[in-house]
Amino acid sequence: MPTLALNNGRFSYEDAGGSGTPVVAVHGSFGRGTTFNAIATRLAPDYRVIAPDLRGHGGSDHGGPFDFVADLAAFIEVLDLAPALVIGHSLGGVTAYRLAARRPELVRAMVIEDVGAVTDETELDHPVLDVTGWPRRFANRTEATDFFSTTPAPDYFLESVVERPGGWELLFDLDELMEVQRASAGNWWPDWLASAHPTLLLRATKSFLLSAGLATDMATRRPNTELTTLDSGHWMHREAPDSYANAVRGFLERVTSRRPAG
Q1: In terms of Cα–Cα distance, which of 207, 230, 97 is closest to 153?
Q2: What is the domain-level CATH number for residue 44?
Q3: Which of 26, 72, 74, 118 is 20–30 Å from 51 (CA)?
Q4: Any residues with CB less than 8 A from the CB of 137 and at least 6 apart, and which?
């Protein structure tokens, strides 16, 4: 897995390779870049998915400050991907549209996967998943599999359990992930409305983060925003990869076929 030195840290990332148009895919809390592997396969060879591990996740360095927007900006700049096509799931979606608001020159278009312009208790019953009681290590893979079988997306969390001397352990730190979740819970309407890049907003029918009403409001209030709903849970790229990839591909084809203004 390749790595980059960015913002006083070392970051790992997945790169599907090939000659297709680059697409930067940003995972959510508790995830890592490998979560998009199935989508990378479905979008190839026309698109080359490049998926970083966010700070504190996967193979990237731990320790704050957790400024994911600054890290994503640096990632795009160092790899010379601007203006980038960006996919963002959950926390990655908030990071993507906040990047578009602050560094519009780095973004060409966005796919925002199942996350809203409001991510705190005013919109959600439980915006923060309490993981303070989770084990940090497991004796074996079976123990980890049994533990995560009770979570909403077992395979998603299991991707961040790796074998180390003496057992299996999490790639993320539980205290850091509590900090990350609390920091990402907020009202981000100003950021959502601050840019007008072409955007596909994807909502899951079984979403616990994005209500139908909020999704419609987001698409109505922001220019150049398409809303598509897929029959899935929150981890749409994993639960409905074919319909997800078809929706994303169609959007990207529309965006890349447009002639530049002027």
Answers
A1: 207
A2: 3.40.50.1820
A3: 118
A4: 166, 167, 168, 169, 170
Q: How far is 193 from 69, CA to CA, in rounded Å?
A: 16
Tell me whether residue 81 is in a domain.
Answer: yes
Is the distance from CB of 35 to CB of 163 less than 8 angstroms? Answer: no
Return the bridge partners of 9, or none.
6
What is each CA distance from 5 to 11, 73, 183, 196, in whole angstroms? Answer: 6, 13, 24, 31
Is residue 195 in a domain? Answer: yes
**28-43 confidence digits (pLDDT tens):** 999 999 999 999 999 9
Residues, the chain, total?
Answer: 262
139 belongs to a structural domain: no
Q: Could you give the angle at the alpha carbon of 120 between the alpha carbons of 172 and 97, nearest 5°?
A: 75
Question: Which amino acid, one-letter code, is at 142?
Answer: T
154 in any annotated domain: no
Q: Range of 94's domain? A: 3-127+186-256
| DSSP-derived 3-state class of residue 6 | strand
pTM above 0.90, yes or no: yes
Mind listing the pLDDT tens digit for each residue in 75-121?
999 999 999 999 999 999 999 999 999 999 999 999 999 999 999 98
